[in-house]
Amino acid sequence: MNKKVEEIQNWYRNERELSNYSIMDVGETLNKLAEKGLIWILKDLKDITEFEGIVIDYYLNKYRVDQIYDNLEDLIQIPPFNDACAMTPSKSSKKIIPRQKQQPTLEVRDVKQFIGYKKAKEIEKRIIELCKNFPSFEVDHIVKQIERSAESIKKSIQIGEQIYVREKFNQYSIAIGSAKETSAWLKVSLGQKYITKTQFEELDNMIDQVVSILTKTLSNIKEKEGKVLDFPNPYTPNVRNFGAYNNALLLVEKIYEVTRKKEYWKEKNLVSEMRKQATSCVANIAEAHQLYIKKKFRFFYSECANYKNVKN
């Protein structure tokens, strides 16, 4: 790989970590790279999120004719043009631009041996088996959503097992949010008698264990690296004690009760949308209980929109 390409990729990873994966900040950084003709360099990165992939494709298409593929070594720096984030100067330049301060890194473990990963993998496996017995009309909603959120716990733990400290916090935050969302879908499934109380309690207990393991891991990192990096508190509140969560569960019960009435039998699309919006309220409230404030606001905003859709 061209050294300049690798340098730009590492610069982008660092910028992304410093922004705590803020959608707006990441989007702005990608836009600047596109305008400078460098967005193509990120196209084949293996650690980008789905959101980043969509934005990269968009800007690559928009600025395709502006992309620079040759003479990359002549580049001195890339945006944002501040002293802390400047790139290494080219050989032909005598100007010395300071590098960014080295960030603490972690030793990469074998994620398959991590107890948190093993439990997350087992949760996903059990949920897939349970969902085989769900009603066919729930396949396109609850089944897909709970399988997606369960898979996200495992995948986020996998991605989080790397040297970048901030990225580990970010991915574990996503895993914690996905775990709480999975628990919410299980609660909804229990309420509709798709699963038994015993099945719910066993899986919910495993989810609590995963959250506890991830939280303890981050707590140890924060204690070790907290003097260098400003990390959020890894201890998330118990969503079961949150009034809005419990009210949203009651809303789901009422929506399912109402939509089972005879007058709704011919309104399949309406019934599906009402149930979808109501259950999404529960899921978003649960997933919002993670580490970063911006993420909480995003999920709470989605929950408000879903609630309005239910009322309308």
UniProtKB/TrEMBL annotation:
User: Out of the domains of life, which is the source?
Assistant: Bacteria
- Mind telling me which SUPFAM superfamilies this protein's record contains? IVS-encoded protein-like
Annotated signal sequence range = none
Q: Which Pfam families match?
A: 23S_rRNA_IVP
Tell me where the transmembrane regions lie: none
What InterPro entries is this protein classified in? Answer: 23S_rRNA-intervening_sequence (IPR012657), 23S_rRNA_IVS_sf (IPR036583)
Protein name per the record: Four helix bundle protein
Q: What is the lineage of its organism?
A: Bacteria, Bacillati, Bacillota, Bacilli, Bacillales
